[in-house]
Specification:
The complex is a heterodimer of chains A (235) and B (452). Chain A is α/β, with parallel strands linked by helices and 235 residues long. Chain A is built from 9 helices and 12 strands. In chain A, the strands form 3 sheets. In chain A, strands 2-1-3-4-5 form a 5-stranded parallel beta sheet, sandwiched between helices. Chain A starts with a strand and ends with a helix. Chain B has 3 domains: 104 residues, Beta-Lactamase (2-Layer Sandwich), CATH 3.30.450.20; 85 residues, Signal transduction histidine kinase, dimerisation/phosphotransfer (DHp) domain (Helix Hairpins, Orthogonal Bundle), CATH 1.10.287.130; 152 residues, Heat Shock Protein 90 (2-Layer Sandwich). In chain B, the strands form 3 sheets. A 5-stranded antiparallel beta sheet of chain B has the order 2-1-5-4-3, with helices on one face. Chain B has a 5-stranded mixed beta sheet with strand order 7-9-10-12-11. Classes of the chains: A alpha/beta (235), B alpha+beta (452).
Chain lengths: 235, 452
């Protein structure tokens, strides 16, 4: 049983989702206010947090910001359909994924499983330590080191880096990344991947290295740059 | 001469000038003196002249007379004796034979001149006749008018022109101002207002100010009504999301307890729920576009690439109706815009075409560059082989929820929002959208985006 925290002010929806997710192997706790939700999130570790954006007490983005300041727990943001800004802001703050409301519950289930799979697949598979340049990624401990110092990544960022490090110096297409990291088909209007990449870039950047480790290949995908020569060879 | 400005200007200007000319003519006609009243003073001056001339003659005979003639330079002078023989002065002036010497003053016409003859007596008692020829200018009526009216005419033309200009400006400026506002309003810029005079006091407002004020009042009302309608649409869509979200979850819960007959019913409910969800999505897209006027996130987009992407998706949909989508790319066209919006616009138009084209036919997409009022535009034409649209309804198809002849195409699907989204998106990119029936049958929708 996975422990899920659902923060949404729609009480009726919460009770139905609790039942639905319960049938599918999740134990759901609910909170109907932003501030209460944040307290619940801080009290104990959760497998995942489902967070609505529009909340009384405290805005969903604020809740997400506070959660992110102390934990890298998976957060799936429930945005309002038609509010494109919400999903962009949400991903920028550090949501793992988003789902526009109203959603098909089966879609929600699929997204949740995709997010959780990222957590579990790494630990279940044979533990591997990937090394590229001064980057070190430990799939078992879910730990990333850059130049010996620890980098805190969310699950999505971790999976993204893992996928890129598995084929260093090569271009990984957006379609493949979307499938392996987000667990869904690539959608040209979906900026999630770009958002995650830009957050990953920020976290990986150090004072010495001005050049970004993750290079965008316009219209194709992303590439983990080995060093300067590799970039030129790649072009 | 077509504008109101010139009509009023010319009419008033001519009127003012004519008033001046006619009144001058009338004054002239009144003031023109009668012959008798004019002759009396003329005769006495002639007599004085004659006496003066004779004095000069008495003093130093003909030399004196000639010096008199030189002093009075207004004509020819002569002195003739009783027999008609010229004593002094101009010999060509002669006395007419049959005129008795007793006649006091006698004048006769000689070409353009008038020759006056006066009897005079010298100090020695000699009888002479004094002749003077006065050059007479020919006066025509228009000459007189010009002579009397000339300097004032310029003043009349200038002052009349100036005052008329001011008058016309007073008339036409508010009209032009109002027209500009009305035109913007009709283009859909509901925030357009006519400029009102800054002083709202009763003394300073004329009818035009009042008209502008009323116009603005009307525009405000229009704007608030349209906005209220849009807000309502948006709010309703927003509010529908929560119950729809609950319904979707309830549906899934019901599925778990359902037997096979129930499942078919639930499938149907799910289909309708999804349609409702789609509609809400489209409505929210539309209203977010209505709210968005600024060019945020514009990038350079290759139109052919966008169409390529759409064609591969659309072909999948078309094959289900045994149709196909054919894309004939023209030159590479780059436009500035938001990729998602451009994509949605083209996609909605193509989808619409697929929906209405005959089974087994093809939807054709063509991209070209066209010149439009000195702007270079990128044009996408999407043509179907469907029934077309009645000419009088062709403007309405871009209205939300508009459906042509609902009885004839009940199974076509769609909400009638797609083309409204397309139109909104095209307008956001300052482009044009129009639909026309082809003579060979079928409808073509053309979208034009400014290039560069």
């Amino acid at each position: 049983m996975e422990d899920i925290l659902l923060i949404d002010d729609d009480v009726e929806l919460c009770s139905m989702l609790t039942e639905y997710l319960g049938k599918n192997g999740f134990r759901v706790k609910t909170a109907h206010r932003g501030d209460l939700g944040l307290r619940a999130a801080q009290q104990r570790p959760w497998s995942m947090i489902l967070l609505d954006v529009m909340l009384p007490g405290m805005d969903g983005f604020e809740v997400l910001k506070r959660i992110r300041s102390e934990s890298s727990v998976s957060v799936l943001l429930l945005t309002a359909r038609g509010e494109d800004v919400d999903r962009i802001v949400g991903l920028e703050i550090g949501a793992d994924d988003y789902l526009p409301k109203p959603f098909n519950p089966r879609e929600l289930l699929a997204r949740m499983r995709a997010v959780l799979r990222r957590n579990t697949s790494a630990t279940a598979a044979t533990p591997v330590v990937l090394r590229v340049g001064d980057l070190e990624l430990d799939t078992a401990a879910r730990k990333v080191l850059r130049g010996g110092s620890r980098v805190d990544l969310t699950d999505v960022e971790f999976s993204l880096l893992e996928a890129l490090m598995q084929s260093p110096g090569k271009v990984v297409s957006r379609e493949d990344l979307s499938q392996s990291v987000l667990g869904r088909q690539f959608d040209p209007f979906d900026r999630s991947l770009d958002m995650h990449v830009s957050r990953l870039r920020k976290k990986l950047s150090t004072a010495e290295a001005e050049e970004s480790l993750v290079k965008t290949i316009r219209g194709v995908g992303y590439q983990l740059v080995l060093d300067r020569d590799a970039v030129e060879m790649g072009d | 001469m077509r504008s109101l400005f010139f009509k009023i200007f010319i009419i008033f200007w001519i009127a003012q000038t004519l008033i001046f000319i006619i009144s001058t003519a009338l004054i002239l006609a009144r003031r023109f003196p009668r012959p008798a009243s004019m002759l009396d003073p003329a005769f006495s001056s002639l007599r004085a002249e004659a006496a003066e001339a004779l004095q000069a003659f008495d003093a130093s005979s003909c030399a004196g007379f000639d010096s008199f003639a030189q002093q009075h330079n207004r004509g020819e002078f002569a002195l003739v004796d009783e027999n008609g023989k010229t004593i002094c002065g101009n010999g060509s002036l002669s006395v007419q034979d049959n005129v008795p010497s007793t006649t006091e003053i006698y004048g006769r016409q000689l070409g353009q001149d008038t020759v006056w003859t006066l009897p005079v007596v010298s100090a020695k008692g000699q009888q002479f006749r004094f002749l003077v020829s006065v050059h007479r200018e020919r006066h025509t009526w228009y000459g007189d008018l010009m002579h009397f009216a000339f300097p004032q005419l310029l003043v009349a033309v200038a002052v009349g022109g100036l005052t008329t200009f001011v008058l016309v400006m007073i008339f036409t400026r508010p009209v032009i101002n109002l027209r500009e506002a009305a035109r913007q309003l009709s283009k859909g810029q509901l925030s357009a207002r006519a400029k009102e005079s800054k002083k709202p006091s009763v003394l300073h407002t004329d009818e035009f100010d009042a008209l502008a004020h009323d116009f603005n009042h009307m525009a405000e009302r229009l704007e608030s009504l349209v906005n209220a309608q849009k807000m309502l649409l948006r709010d309703v869509s927003h509010e529908l999301r929560s119950p729809l979200a609950r319904a979707s979850v309830a549906l899934e819960l019901a599925r778990d307890d359902a037997n096979s007959t129930m499942t078919t019913h639930l499938d149907r409910i799910q289909r309708e729920t999804e349609r409702l969800n789609q509609l809400i999505g489209q409505l929210l897209t539309l209203s977010s576009m209505e709210a968005n006027e600024e060019e945020i996130g514009f990038e350079r987009i290759s139109l052919n690439n966008v169409v390529d992407e759409i064609v591969s998706d659309a072909n999948y949909e078309a094959h289900q109706r045994n149709c196909s989508v054919i894309f004939e790319p023209g030159e590479q066209l780059e436009i500035a815009g938001r990729r998602e919006l451009i994509y949605r616009a083209v996609e909605n138009v193509v989808r619409n075409a697929i929906r209405f084209t005959e089974e087994g036919s093809a939807v054709e997409i063509r991209t070209t560059s066209v010149q439009d009022d000195s702007r270079k535009m990128a044009s996408i034409q999407v043509s179907d082989h469907g029934p077309g649209i009645p000419e009088k309804e062709i403007e309405s198809i871009f209205r939300p929820f508009y459906k042509v002849d609902q009885a004839r195409s009940p199974q076509k699907g769609g909400f009638g929002v797609g083309l409204a989204i397309a139109e909104r998106s095209v307008k956001l990119h300052k482009g044009d959208l129009r639909a026309f029936n082809r003579p060979t049958g079928g409808l073509t929708i053309e979208m034009r985006f400014p290039t560069g």
